[in-house]
Amino acid sequence: MAKKNYEQLVREVVDKVGGVDNINSLFHCVTRLRFKLKDTSKVDKEAIKNIKGVLTVVEGNGQFQVVIGNEVADVFDAVLKMYPQIKSEIKTSDIEEKPSGNILTRAFNTMASIFTPIIIALAGSGMIKAVLVILTTYGLMDKVGSTYKILSAAGNSVFYFLPLFLAFSAAKTFKVNPFISVAIIGALMEPNFTGLMKANGDMAYFAGIPVVLMGYSGTVIPAILTIWAYSYLEKFLKKFIPKSIEIFALSMVALLIMVPLAVIVIGPIGVTLGNGLGYVINTLSSSSGLLAGLIVGAGWTYLVMLGIHWGVVPIMINNLSNLGYDVIRPMIAAATFASAGVALGVFLRSKNKETRGLAASSLVPALLGGITEPIVYGLSVKYKKPLIAQTIAGGIAGAFMGMFQTKAIVYVFPALTTLPAFFGETFTIYIIGIAMAFTISAALTYFFGFDEGKTTSESKKNHDNDLELVSCVQGEMINIEEVKDAVFAGKAMGEGVAFIPENGVITAPIDGTIEVAFPTGHAIGIKSSDGVEILIHVGINTVELKGEHFKMLVNQGESVKCGQKLIEFDLEAIKEKDYDITTMMIITNSEIFNDINIDEYRHVTNEERVMKLKIKEA
User: Fold this and answer.
1) Are residues 481 and 444 in the same domain?
2) Which of 83, 473, 551, 560 has the maximum number of C-beta atoms within 10 A of its C-beta?
3) How many domains does the chain have?
4) pTM to 2 decimal places
5) What CATH number did the domain enclosing 28 receive?
6) Does residue 562 have an active-site annotation?
7) Higher pLDDT, 149 or 454
8) Domain-ending residue, one of 92, 121, 151
């Protein structure tokens, strides 16, 4: 997507989520804009799905997630540039966001907001560690040399000081002072404290209270639990500490209370809990690696679609810190490469130029970066059968790798560029496993096939490679520039025509597939097998009627024939409520045509031609 299109995309997305005033906060992950909204009833979900540049939307974890794909960081930056007030809201600590969802949903949401900012540092340092393993294994670098030690420091820094990174990120999530939070957790890694311990479980005393000593370097849960507890303490202290002395009193009191509390209670509980979770997962893998791999490989895509996959991240990182390896990540890789296989299968099978283009462009990011959501939402979910193919392939490959206890030695996104992260005694198994996932998924996608929507002879296409569209309604045909709506009249959504309807029947202007059937009944999107994308919008601002006086006669994904009834509406009732009933028929992908010739403006019936399109030659 060209950068010049971001402004239009951003404006439409912000508008359809209820406007800037409806946004509590916004952040992004690898492929999604994640909105926290004040009132989700203001969201026009179907309209957002229909925005060019949006793959789909997902609701979960108390967030409204708009899936963009590989350009999400650029789109996020464009949002903050166009709406700086959203940026300030993210950083304002006095915004009260009402919790949404059950306790498990909120926990996953919290994990996502804590881990998302630090994943990039974890992945980069992890790759350095993996490369060093290869270099030293094959004698290309000496472990006692200074070069190795300097590079090892670069690779180990994030993992060794992981509690500090988590403290800072958790402080942002829990809306407390991040520097006081880092100071609290930093005390658990300070030499005076670590010097008290020779081994985990050693005892010390604080004012006569016994302290079970633990090593906190590389741990995950103690820092998160400690800062969560501190978030309540800080709010309490701010009620009593005068502003005039808060600059030193807040941090002093916080450290005096939280550091002893962390070393006596929260820290040992957190370490034990983290080790316990890792033990349960690894025991399951050890006792039935095949079953564990089957479940993870087949089910991971669905966890990602629900946005709750972040709940597994602390377990994987805890395994790497405590054991030096993790067995979950290779199982996840099975799902990743199965998604990539879908893209290849669709590319080989599809006859549609646009679909093949999407498959080809999404295959490279999947193989090289582990970014699969454009494939999942743009191909697998859309065409359904490819989703079945990747589920089967991911399950088979995951079971294979689980059976052999395949290991990852650092945290990375599974991809061809991160192969060193899986180096070791099970590396060959990993290579075989991801190859299985990719090839099985591609083969199943190809042989299962999928329905892209077929056209028939009733689609009005002539020998000159022209495509003809008939009117979608009976009435007076007028110039789109006369419409009393700046978006339509300005052709921001594409070239088209408008009508003043005489009755309440909308019909299909061409053979095709229903891409979007708005639940309000006021609009519908159709796509022909030739790639024409048509939006029919009945009236101006009629979405405000919330479906009253409209009846949608078809469903999303349904194939329709030219002239088939799509929508019925009560023309007179809508007029009585003072709505402009002008109906627009827009070619939303006008750029793929060499010419769009509009016929003479006149009175038309549903079966009369109104425009002719000349498709660009391949």
Assistant:
1) no
2) 473
3) 3
4) 0.52
5) 3.30.1360.60
6) no
7) 149
8) 92
